[in-house]
Amino acid sequence: MDVSEETIKVMISLLPGFLFIKVVSLRSSIKKYEAHHYVVDALIASLVIYSVAKLLRIDTSGAEWEQIFYVLLLTVILGLVWSVVINRDWLSIILHPGDAKLSTHSSIFPVKAINEFTGKWHLIRFSNGKEIVGVLREFNHETHEALIENGRLILRDGKLSPDSAWYYSPSGEQIIYMRTIEENDK
C-alpha cells in the first residue's frame, strides 16, 4: 500500500481527535459507532482542539516535542472536561431547563442511578430467574455484569439460602428488577 506524505499529515492532524474520543469513552458511557463516524468525530474534535490551542497561543504548525506535548495535554484536558459534561448531563440542563429531566444517555440506570445503588442491600432478579438478596458492589454498564457481596439466593419456598457468598452475574444475565431493602424492610 502506497501512503503519501499528505495522508500521513492528515492522520497526524486527526490524532488529537482520536485521543479525545478515547479519553471521553474511558470516562463516560458513549455509544459504539461505525468506523467512519469515529473519523468524523475525530475531525470535529481535532478542529475544536486546534481552535482552542490557537486561542491559547499554542503553536501547532511545527513538529517540536514541546508543541506536540502541549497539544496532547490540551487534548486530554478537553476530553476530561467533555466527559464531565456528558456524565452530568449539562447539555440537557442547558437545552431543557425546568422540571423535565431529559437524559442524553441511552440508558439511565447504569449511568445515573448506579451510584445510588452500590453499597446497599437489594433484592435483585436476573433474566435467568434467580433472585438474590445482597449488597451490590460493582456493575458494568456495557456488559451488564454485576458483583454482589453477601449474596443469598431466594429458594423456591421463598426462604433465603443459608450460606451467603459473593455472587457474580456474567454478561449473559440481565437485571430484570432491583429493589432496595431499607432498614425498616428487615
Explained architecture:
- The protein is α+β, with helices and mostly antiparallel strands and 186 residues long.
- It has two domains: 5-95, no CATH class; 108-185, SH3 type barrels, CATH 2.30.30.
- The protein has five helices and five strands.
- It has helices spanning 5-27, 35-55, 65-87, 90-95, 108-117; strands at residues 121-126, 131-139, 146-153, 165-169, 175-180.
- A five-stranded antiparallel beta sheet has the order 4-3-2-1-5.
- The protein is elongated and about 70 Å long.
- The chain starts with a helix and ends in a 6-residue tail after the last strand.
Gist of the model:
By secondary structure, the protein is α+β, with helices and mostly antiparallel strands. It has 5 helices and 5 strands. The protein folds into 2 domains: 5-95, no CATH class; 108-185, SH3 type barrels (Roll), CATH 2.30.30.100.
What's the shape? Answer: elongated
Structural class: alpha+beta
> How many independent structural domains?
2
Order of helices and strands: HHHHHEEEEE
For this structure, the quaternary state is: single chain
Number of helices: 5
What keywords describe this structure?
5-stranded antiparallel β-sheet, 5 strands, 2 domains, SH3 type barrels, alpha+beta, 186 residues, 45% helix, 18% strand
